[in-house]
Amino acid sequence: MKRFILIFSILFSSSTVGQELATLKYDGGGDWYSNPTALPNLIQYCNNNIQTKISSNQTSVEVESIDLFNYPLVFMTGHGNVYFSDFAIENLRNYLTSGGFLHISDNYGLDPYIRKEMKKVFPNAEFEEIPNNHPIYHQSYSFDKGIPKIHEHDNKPAQGFGIFIDGRLVCFYDFETDLSDGWEDASVHNNPESTREKALQMGANIVQYAFSN
């Protein structure tokens, strides 16, 4: 019964008042806790600039936990291995197909692991590159060229990928850009303020899109 109550709250709550975002905690040894200042800074930016009223509570949620259904959006990052148990796979699948949203930010080295594990979650779906005219790039802020480049990894262009289920974008994956580096405190990566602003604007777009779709 608790599962269905929580699913109902995701599907039918249009208000952002008091809602929380969470960092996804996963097994496998990867550093899921990377970029600790990223999500709090993004929440503050959203509340100050796009009129959300998201709770400032900093929290994490395990991918296997029923508490996952409390969050309209969960954020995931790291540099290394990711492992989803069979129960985690089922739980994440139910969360995403019931109205939840997952944002994955490749903090360099995550790519081969997350692609393999997300394939277990949705065996019949692939990560698709999201076109530049997709609404996620045109919420409060417009990015006509798609996802902005924030942090250099391998001299490759920034890309935004998505998993669509029944026509709905349920997972957004930023690759070769590391948006969450740009959300962190300025002193962490010494990014120019203009770069941090682009990262936070794109993050705000993701939040806004996830809350309204």
Automatic annotation (TrEMBL):
UniProt cross-references to InterPro entries, sorted A to Z: DUF4159 (IPR025297)
Residues annotated as signal peptide: 1-18
Residues covered by the DUF4159 domain: 21-211
Keyword Signal: yes
Keyword Signal in record: yes
UniProt keyword annotations, A-Z: Signal
Name under which the protein is recorded: DUF4159 domain-containing protein
Organism annotation: Urechidicola vernalis
Organismal lineage: Bacteria, Pseudomonadati, Bacteroidota, Flavobacteriia, Flavobacteriales
